[in-house]
Design goal:
This protein is α+β, with helices and mostly antiparallel strands and about 100 residues long. Helices cover about 45% and strands about 25% of the residues. Keywords: DNA-directed RNA polymerase, Nucleus, Transcription.
Length: about 100
């Protein structure tokens, strides 16, 4: 996964950033947005896919005090945990189903 900051965003301060994810779309954007929006320090979190022909997603985070990059890293780690738990639960249920 390749992530960069949107050019010109430096003047917004560390708590307001837009990150550009290459080769990502609504699948990652919506799941990550839903997690990050629940964090207490987050004022705004949203994403957009500028054009369907472009393989990139813009992801905006605005916080009260915490640097946006820390929130992004936390969100990605939390999303990984959710995905791992989902896979574990699914595999457990498949094994249980196959026993019958």
């Amino acid at each position: 996964m390749k992530i960069s900051e949107l050019p010109g965003d430096e003047e917004s301060g560390l708590t307001c950033r837009t990150y550009v994810f290459q080769d990502e779309s609504h699948t990652l954007g919506n799941a990550l947005k839903c997690l990050i929006n629940r964090y207490e320090d987050v004022d705004f979190c949203g994403y957009t896919v500028p054009h369907p022909a472009e393989a990139k997603m813009h992801f905006r985070i605005q916080t009260k005090n915490t640097p946006a990059l820390e929130i992004l890293k936390r969100g990605l780690k939390d999303l990984q945990k959710v995905c791992d738990h989902t896979i574990d639960l699914f595999e457990k249920e498949v094994k249980e189903f196959n026993k019958t």
